[in-house]
Amino acid sequence: MFRRRTLLTAAVAVPAALATSSAITGTASADGSRGFPTEFPLPNGFLPEGIAIGPGPFAYFGSRADGRIHRVNLITGVGRDVSAGPGTPSVGLKTDDRRIYVSGGNAGNGRVIDLRSGTILASLTFAAAPTFINDVVLTPRTAWFTDSQNPFIYGVPRGRGVPEQADVVRLPLSGDYVHVAGFNANGIARTPDGRALLIVQSATGLLFRVDPGTGVAATVDLGGELLTNGDGLLVEGRTLYVVQNQLNRVAVFRLDRSGGSGRLVERLTDPRFDIPTTVASFGNRLYLPNARFSTPPTPETPYSAVAIRK
């Protein structure tokens, strides 16, 4: 088995040295991924946080150390750097068929990178210190970024052209959302019906449904469940996966179509988790980078990502 399940209800572009593939292999999978690595190394000293998968069986990781982007072939486990870092962090990231959208952490910015060449097409300033641009989600027209230190989300238009600073939308969060001391807005995803955004607030463990037109937030009814240490979010259909980093687990919810309410289905754990932060999906597997926040970072500190079955 990849991991332990806790069931809660019966109802429901700069080439670098290639990383070595993991010796751990997967079990038979419905998506044809038999033999795919279920654990693979990332560069020593990399300090991973975000993950995005696709197009194809490729995972992209951002470095909190220097901002470079590392791509791993999920079939072989072999990876290489594909974009040089600017010397500031890369935190959450998402990909489409042409670009990588990257959250810049305490640099207060977001970057848009060409997927093929690794060239940074745009670096857009969102906020001045104190700030932490944490995660990003893609809607058909906009990339939305969270800020864990300020009660705003920031929108960058998507399209054929390259976005400019004047295009950035600074949207204040209001309604039920109350900014508190500590880490606030963190992971972000779209609701199942695609009409709104879901944002987890790490400091309170609350999940909010946010209108991207107004910034008005409504607390999602999770039946009293709190998302303590909530980090990365992933929505597939009506299933919501929430990474609870320091707890080394992923909470799985069944949402209604609007994303206004949900019920806890199960919690996923795995002995290989070492403070996972974000999650992405390929086939019938979830992939998570181990950020290892409790391990003092050095240039030689090893890092990895792991795969578990959904």
Describe the overall structure.
This protein has no helices and 26 strands. It is mainly β and 310 residues long. A five-stranded antiparallel β-sheet has the order 1-23-22-21-20, with no helix packed on it. Strands 15-19-18-17-16 form a five-stranded mixed β-sheet, with no helix packed on it. A hairpin with a 5-residue loop joins strand 5 and strand 6. It is globular and about 45 Å long. The N terminus is likely disordered.
Mean pLDDT: 91
Strand order of the largest sheet: 1-23-22-21-20
Class computed from helices, strands and strand pairing: mainly beta
Strand count, sense and barrel status of the largest sheet are:
5 strands, antiparallel
Give Rg in angstroms: 18 Å
Q: Beta fraction of the residues?
A: 35-45%
Helix content: under 10%
User: Which stretches of 5+ consecutive residues score pLDDT under 50?
Assistant: 1-32
How far apart lie the N and C ends? 12 Å
Number of helices: 0
How many β-strands, per DSSP?
Answer: 26
Q: Looking at the structure, what is the overall shape?
A: globular
Element pattern in H and E: EEEEEEEEEEEEEEEEEEEEEEEEEE
